[in-house]
């Protein structure tokens, strides 16, 4: 390959229609003009590339906040993001046009100095690709990632101008891409919902790692997100722990039951616990007994209550309790049998954590980093969260005690121990047939199993 002679042909004034003051167009002039055009086109390529990152990385809730603050360019950003599909088409059309124009100009310029057409194409392609990757893609996009908000505000109006200039092409390709998406069964919408639950939970986890929020705050927020997946059966006080009074009991007996149970309210039943007719409040009992206010019979101070299925969503139930001003509801199974009771305090504890009263024991008591004493009625998901393990949660049980009975297949006694995939559970305290407390130890074998499973999967693939 050889370079052409530098002595370039000169266009004479006669060739330009006799204009005596025409400037001769030489190869040098063309080269300078072409180089200048390439510089401008690279800048435009960087503009469109960075615009794509900035506009689509900026969350919709941040755009709304910027509009409320009255930031310059915020209205333009909001208008562009209102139709993300059209915005993307505008950016892609603009970017591809400048890249194609850049490649064409570069090939023509190199062709002036290189006789071999194939070599000219190769040189121009390699050179332009390198320039575009560095100055048209990598650098602008990196800048946009680090300055998303400020850059989006700055380029919003120029983007609107670009859309107006390229309107015929934008409208055409916008229609065609939507048509293709429709034919292929794809979604025409580009952006998803305003913000998803997973995104919020990920932000919470990141906030804890960065020290923005405390561990206790993160745990409470996690419980709030988990609350709408919780059912009444998982929150209720089980039937075995229910303190209740019969309908024909005296007011003094009802007061004594409340005091001994350390409860403000207790359910009232007729016949047995499967027929709970209402709830009595110790304040009403005291007024009736000692101040002569209202009824003197227990039936006269009984307040109505709700009966809800054990599968009822806790979130919906809380709303219903607030609307009806019920402090206590009865949880029943599919046969109408009383499974337990559920109070407003139980609901609050599900969100803020255990609220202990008097000599009530902690649900968890750590012995060391891998060993903890757990009350039998604690839910399996809480045990998993505290110890960072993955005990299965079955439909037949929700608590640690239920898990032990399910694994053993029989009643267990104090001192017995079961092992589930490296998690040892030793029964520490039993009351009649009920597991009151167990010692849960996470052994090294549990963590070894976790690391071996991926390796085994990799071997199977090989």
UniProtKB/TrEMBL annotation:
Give TM regions: 29-48, 87-113, 119-136
Q: Name one Pfam family in it.
A: CorC_HlyC
Q: Does the keyword Membrane apply?
A: yes
Annotated InterPro entries: CBS_dom, CBS_dom_sf, CNNM, FAD-bd_PCMH-like_sf, FAD-bd_PCMH_sub2, Ion_transp-like_CBS, Transptr-assoc_dom
Residues in domain CNNM transmembrane? 27-217
Keywords from UniProt, A to Z, are: CBS domain, Membrane, Repeat, Transmembrane, Transmembrane helix
What name appears for this protein in its UniProt entry? Hemolysin family protein
Ranked from the top, the taxonomy reads: Archaea, Methanobacteriati, Methanobacteriota, Stenosarchaea group, Halobacteria
């Amino acid at each position: 390959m050889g370079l052409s002679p530098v002595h370039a042909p000169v266009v004479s004034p006669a060739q330009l229609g006799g204009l005596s003051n025409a400037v001769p167009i030489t190869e040098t002039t063309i080269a300078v003009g072409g180089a200048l055009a390439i510089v401008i086109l690279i800048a435009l390529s960087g503009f469109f590339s960075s615009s794509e990152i900035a506009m689509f990385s900026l969350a919709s809730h941040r755009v709304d906040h910027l509009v409320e603050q009255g930031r310059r360019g915020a209205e333009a950003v909001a208008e562009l993001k209102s139709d993300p599909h059209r915005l993307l088409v505008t950016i892609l059309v603009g970017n591809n046009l400048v890249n194609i124009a850049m490649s064409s100009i570069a090939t023509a310029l190199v062709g002036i100095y290189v006789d071999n057409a194939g070599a000219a194409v190769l040189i121009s392609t390699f050179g332009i690709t390198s320039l575009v990757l560095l100055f048209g893609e990598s650098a602008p996009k990196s800048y946009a990632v680090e300055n998303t908000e400020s850059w989006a505000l700055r380029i919003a109006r120029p983007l609107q101008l670009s859309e107006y200039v390229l309107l015929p092409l934008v409208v055409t390709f916008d229609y065609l891409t939507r048509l293709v998406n429709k034919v292929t069964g794809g979604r025409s919408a580009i952006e998803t919902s305003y913000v998803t639950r997973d995104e919020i939970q990920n932000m919470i986890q990141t906030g804890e790692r960065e020290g923005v929020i405390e561990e206790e705050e993160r745990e409470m927020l996690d419980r709030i997100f988990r609350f709408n997946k919780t059912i009444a059966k998982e929150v209720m006080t089980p039937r075995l722990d229910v303190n209740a009074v019969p309908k024909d009991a005296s007011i003094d007996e009802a007061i004594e039951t409340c005091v001994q149970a350390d409860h403000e309210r207790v359910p009232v039943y007729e016949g047995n616990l499967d027929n709970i007719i209402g709830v009595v409040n110790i304040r009403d009992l005291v007024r009736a007994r000692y101040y002569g206010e209202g009824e003197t019979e227990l039936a006269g101070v009984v307040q109505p209550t709700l009966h809800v299925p054990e599968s009822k969503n806790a979130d919906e139930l809380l709303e219903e309790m607030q609307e009806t001003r019920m402090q206590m509801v009865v949880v029943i199974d599919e046969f109408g049998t009383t499974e337990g009771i559920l109070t407003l305090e139980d609901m609050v504890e599900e969100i803020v954590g255990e609220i202990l009263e008097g000599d009530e024991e902690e649900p968890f008591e750590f012995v060391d980093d891998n060993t903890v004493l757990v009350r039998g009625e604690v839910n399996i998901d809480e045990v998993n969260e505290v110890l960072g393990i993955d005990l299965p949660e079955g439909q037949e049980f929700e608590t640690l005690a239920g898990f032990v009975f399910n694994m053993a297949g029989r009643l267990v006694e104090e001192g017995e121990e079961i092992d589930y995939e490296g998690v040892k559970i030793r029964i520490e305290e039993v009351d009649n047939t009920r597991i009151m407390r167990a010692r849960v130890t996470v052994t090294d074998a549990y963590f070894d199993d976790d690391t071996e499973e991926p390796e085994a999967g990799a071997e199977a693939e090989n």
